[in-house]
Each structure stands twice: as C-alpha cells, then as structure tokens.
Design brief:
The chain is mainly alpha-helical and 168 residues long. Helices cover 61% and strands 5% of the residues. It is built from six helices and two strands; from the N terminus they run H-H-H-H-H-E-E-H. A two-stranded antiparallel sheet has the order 1-2. Strand 1 and strand 2 form a beta hairpin. Helix 3 packs across helix 4 and helix 4 runs antiparallel to helix 6. The longest helix has 25 residues. The two termini are 16 Å apart. 29% of the residues are buried.
C-alpha cells in the first residue's frame, strides 16, 4: 500500500478513532463539552470573545474552542505531526493531509459511534438539529445536512495528499 494512503490511515487508527471514543465517553450526549462543569479549566474558552478566537471561529466554522480543544487539537496533534515530520516522512503535504484526515474521521466517528444519543440523526438535521457547535451547513438531500467544515476539510485533505504524491 502506498505511503500516501498508509500514513493517513495509521493516523486515523491511532489518533482519530481513540480520540473520538474518549470524547464520547467524557462528553456523553452533550457534545462540545457542554455537559462539563463550567468551573473546570478544560470546559472554559480563553478564546471566547477575543479577536484571535473570532478568527478561529471564522476559519473553522465552529464554536470557539474550549481549553480542552486547544490542548488536544491545537497543541498535542500539531506536536505529534511535527514529530512525525522530523522522525518520519519529511513530506509536509503528507503530514497536513493526514492532519485533515484525523479531523474528519474523529468527527465522523464521534457522530456515528456515540451510544449516548442519536448524534448522527441530530447531525444530519443540520440547522434544525441540536448540534449547536457547527455554524454553517450544506444541504445534501431533502432535509439532510452536513457541516460545511467537513467539505472544506475533505477538500484540503485530498489536495494535500495529491501534493504529497506529486512532490515526494
């Protein structure tokens, strides 16, 4: 199997799926940390209401990230991918494509495997459902939607993996 497929698949297996299952366990039927005690450091957002936070919201099309998300998505994952670059495949496009693969599959795993509530049903209801942390939606069928960010992440994943293949 080509490294251009194996690398993202291994990252999905070792990072996206365990992260999604961990988040299902800790968030249960609430999502985006809304079920957590608001007095805990990880349930707060240092980015809510400031300029940098507003930029993150516009780029990701999500609610402002909680401190937990900052720690995992903006610190731990980039560190892992930097180490993969240094000690593994020195192809930045492959690393970036793998990062977007992890984002997509962690999200889809959370929604498709959440045993605490019908999260996939709520997700596909789009703006009419209870998934408040996604802001922009794309209609995929009659009354069914998916978050716009999924299409952006998928597009970026494909572009980076193609670039990795052509510029290896």
């Amino acid at each position: 199997m080509s490294i251009f497929l194996l690398h993202p698949l291994l990252n999905i297996l070792f990072f996206a799926i365990p992260l999604a299952l961990f988040e299902i366990y800790i968030e249960r039927d609430h999502g985006w940390g809304s079920g957590w005690s608001k007095d805990k450091w990880y349930a707060k957002s240092i980015l809510r209401g400031n300029k940098f936070g507003n930029i993150i919201v516009k780029l990701t099309k999500l609610e402002p990230p909680l401190n937990y998300h900052l720690l995992v998505s903006y610190t731990l994952f980039p560190l892992i991918f930097i180490l993969e670059y240094i000690y593994g495949y020195r192809n930045i496009f492959l690393i970036l494509g793998s990062l977007f693969a992890v984002l997509i599959f962690a999200e889809l795993t959370w929604f498709s495997c959440n045993w605490y509530f019908k999260s996939w049903t709520e997700l596909t209801k789009g703006p009419k459902g209870s998934i408040f942390w996604h802001k922009d939606w794309v209609k995929i069928y009659k009354d069914r939607y998916l978050p716009e960010s999924y299409f952006i992440w998928l597009f970026l994943m494909i572009i980076f993996l193609l670039l990795a293949y052509f510029f290896h």
